[in-house]
């Protein structure tokens, strides 16, 4: 039976790869997007995760289309890279509001239906940077590290209701965002990846599909690195 799935930031990059992977596995997938157009073949809902009202509306539309949401992937995120002495406070808080508080809004709304069903899967998309740090990304790293503590607290709160909460921490992934880096920058990053290549969106998506599946029913509070070894030891 198809499960109702909601993927935030699911119109491009990692989010779209996750949405397509879950749809191919037989789930009924809705995606949120902040700008542009919804991806072809998926039910799209315009939503800014910094707005509680938008998040509530997105869930309501997904529920009306596919039924109570059983799997949520909180993927929506932004970067505003700046060295700390030059970082304005609004740049710091903007990243946290989208990446961390946005995940709080999404998970809180997801709980409403999952607690009634006494089952559910929540997967948060963090980053290797949240565990290892990165110069010029203190705001982004803080937001992505915060997801780990948030997820593990939720895992303890919700486990008795059959709801799992896990984190996927991607490394360097081939996306529109990373394509903007020049060849020298990409080469410098890949030198530190033991597997010697960037991840594809599909690499991340397959890990999410596993955590959302029955095969992962006894896994909660986990942080799964999909980074080619980039973040080993963290």
From TrEMBL:
Gene3D superfamilies: NAD(P)-binding Rossmann-like Domain. It comes from the Bacteria. Keywords: Oxidoreductase. Residues 3-176 form the Ketoreductase domain. GO terms for biological process: fatty acid elongation. GO terms for molecular function: oxidoreductase activity, acting on the CH-OH group of donors, NAD or NADP as acceptor. InterPro entries: KR_dom (IPR057326), NAD(P)-bd_dom_sf (IPR036291), Sc_DH/Rdtase_CS (IPR020904), SDR_fam (IPR002347). Belongs to the short-chain dehydrogenases/reductases (SDR) family. This is Beta-ketoacyl-ACP reductase.
């Amino acid at each position: 039976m198809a499960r109702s799935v909601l993927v935030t930031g699911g119109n491009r990059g990692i989010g779209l790869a996750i949405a397509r992977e879950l749809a191919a596995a037989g789930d009924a997938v809705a995606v949120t997007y902040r700008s542009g157009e919804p991806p072809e073949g998926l039910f799209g809902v315009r939503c800014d995760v910094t707005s509680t009202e938008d998040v509530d509306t997105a869930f309501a539309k997904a529920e009306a289309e596919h039924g109570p949401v059983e799997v949520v992937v909180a993927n929506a995120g932004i970067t505003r890279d700046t060295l700390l002495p030059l970082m304005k406070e609004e740049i710091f808080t903007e990243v946290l509001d989208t990446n961390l508080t946005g995940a709080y809004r999404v998970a809180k709304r997801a709980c409403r239906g999952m607690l009634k069903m006494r089952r559910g899967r929540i997967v948060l998309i963090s980053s290797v940077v949240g565990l290892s740090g990165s110069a010029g990304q203190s705001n982004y790293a803080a937001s992505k590290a915060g997801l780990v503590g948030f997820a593990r607290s939720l895992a303890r709160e919700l486990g008795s209701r059959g709801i799992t909460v896990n984190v996927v921490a991607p490394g360097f992934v081939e996306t529109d965002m990373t394509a903007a880096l020049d060849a020298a920058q990409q080469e410098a990053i890949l030198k530190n990846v033991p597997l010697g290549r960037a991840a594809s969106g599909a690499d991340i998506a397959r890990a999410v599909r596993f955590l959302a599946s029955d095969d992962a029913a006894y896994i909660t509070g986990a942080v799964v690195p999909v980074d080619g070894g980039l973040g080993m030891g963290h």
